[in-house]
Structure formats: C-alpha cells, structure tokens
Amino acid sequence: MSVPEIEAQAVPDDAFLLDVRELDEWQAGHAPTAVHIPLGELQARVEEVPQDAPVYVVCRVGGRSAHAAAWLNRIGREAINVGGGMQSWNFAGRPMVSESGATPFVA
Description:
The protein is an alpha/beta fold. It has a single domain, classed as Rhodanese-like domain (Oxidized Rhodanese, domain 1, 3-Layer(aba) Sandwich), CATH 3.40.250. Helix content is 23%, strand content 17%. It is built from three helices and five strands, in the order ββαββαβα. The protein has helices spanning 23-28, 63-74, 85-91, and strands spanning 5-7, 16-19, 35-36, 55-58, 79-83. Strands 1-5-4-2-3 form a five-stranded parallel sheet. Strand 2, helix 1 and strand 3 (35-36) form a beta-alpha-beta unit. It is globular, with a radius of gyration of 13 Å. The model has no long low-confidence stretch (mean pLDDT 95).
C-alpha cells in the first residue's frame, strides 16, 4: 500500500502536523504548531490524532513518518507523509522552535 506524500514546503500552514520523532529530536527543533507523539507511543495515544481532518506526519527524514502514516490510514484516518521529514522542513525555511530556546536544528 502506498502512502500519500507531500513536500515540506507544501504542507498547509493550518495543518495538523504530527511529529513522531523521539523526545531528544523534538527538543532540538520542531515546527511550532506540531503535536509530538513518538512513534512508539502512537498506538496508545491515537485518540489524540484527529479523525475528521488530514494528519500530516513528520519525522527526521521520512521513514518513521511513512510507517506512522500507513498505520493511521489502515485504521481509517487520513494521513499524509511529509517527504524528507524535518530535514526538508528546515531546508525549505519553514518555522522551527526548540524547547531550550537555542537555535533549533534537526537532530
């Protein structure tokens, strides 16, 4: 089953962005409006993911988010993988913040 994919620069500004990276990656730099649910916690926390709107899923480079998006689609959610992950997000100049207030980067 193929997973729908979108380039980072094409993700709508008002999208529900789900970041499935680990905590240290998240803390280093993430999109300001993203919701953080590490991939290993996604099945247990799936009720935090909208059922009535597209979910754009991101990780570091796109592998984990593709798995997450595939699973979400299998259970009836509308999930789209962000191709190239946060590396592409950063390269596209999309906004990023860090938990420490330091200059955000993709860990």
